[in-house]
Amino acid sequence: MNESQILQIRTYLLSKNLPLDLLMEVEDHFVAHVNDLCQTKAICFEDAFAEVKGFWKEDLTESYYYNGKSTTQFVKEIKTRQQNKILLSSLIATAFLIFLLYLLAFSVSNETFTEILPCIIIIFLSMAGMHYLINFNVFRFSRDHPKIRLNVYQNGNALVFFAGIATVVLGNTYNALSEKIHNFLTGNFSVGFSSFLLLLITIWFYMFGFLMQVKFVKSAKKTIKLIRFSKLSF
């Protein structure tokens, strides 16, 4: 198969709005399948390509997200599966962090807990920012190429910013919230339930967004490396 034919396959897959990580994987399957059909059935490239497109028709059928953005059924299923995995991981991480706070609440006084918790929250929420700065080149590449979707995790870290904004807005009430959370964790459930629930939701949202960001960077580094050090052209 020559470069012109491979480019034809790639152009077709690009028209399906596939993220680049999946596009390169699907392209390999297309090329191998077309080559196999050309050899086994002794047919031309155009006929083999048309047959392979028919084989993938259901997977590459246009579908839509809840926000109206178009995608393919194949990408939608993979993204949903990956998001569900991250959702479970974020729930487990949130439960673990809440357990640590529970142990801390019983280990120190209300005053000490009130002083420590805001510091813990600030350090915790700075993780995504540090990760962003460390991997700034990846995010800059994504920003400089807005038409390129590197992987299914792209833009999945929006909840990090929402959690950060909520934390800034609540900044002046840290001490009062910390005291109520301590009361709730130590058994006074009627006092700090709403404050604890706010903390729980913030941690969960933040963990989900942060894990999406980590997955995005890990996958994007591989994709960008392939783009830069291979003959791929998009």
Description:
The protein has 234 residues and is an all-alpha fold. The chain has two domains: 3-60; 80-228. It is 76% helix and 3% strand. The chain has nine helices and two strands. The protein has helices at 3-14, 20-40, 45-55, 73-107, 110-134, 136-144, 158-169, 174-185, 189-228, and strands at 62-64, 70-72. Strands 1-2 form a two-stranded antiparallel ribbon. A hairpin with a 5-residue loop joins strand 1 and strand 2 (70-72). The protein is elongated. The model has no long low-confidence stretch (mean pLDDT 84).
Mean pLDDT: 84
Biggest β-sheet strands, sense, barrel: 2 strands, antiparallel
> Which stretches are poorly predicted, pLDDT < 50 over at least 5 residues?
none
Shape: elongated
Q: If you compute it from the alpha carbons, what radius of gyration comes out, rounded to the nearest whole angstrom?
A: 24 Å
Strand order of the largest sheet: 1-2
Q: How do the SSEs run, as a string of H and E?
A: HHHEEHHHHHH
Q: State the distance separating the first and last CA atoms.
A: 19 Å
Determine the structural class based on helices, strands and strand pairing.
mainly alpha
How many domains? The number is 2
Number of strands: 2
Count of separate DSSP helical elements: 9
Helix content: over 70%
Give the amount of beta strand, in percent: under 5%
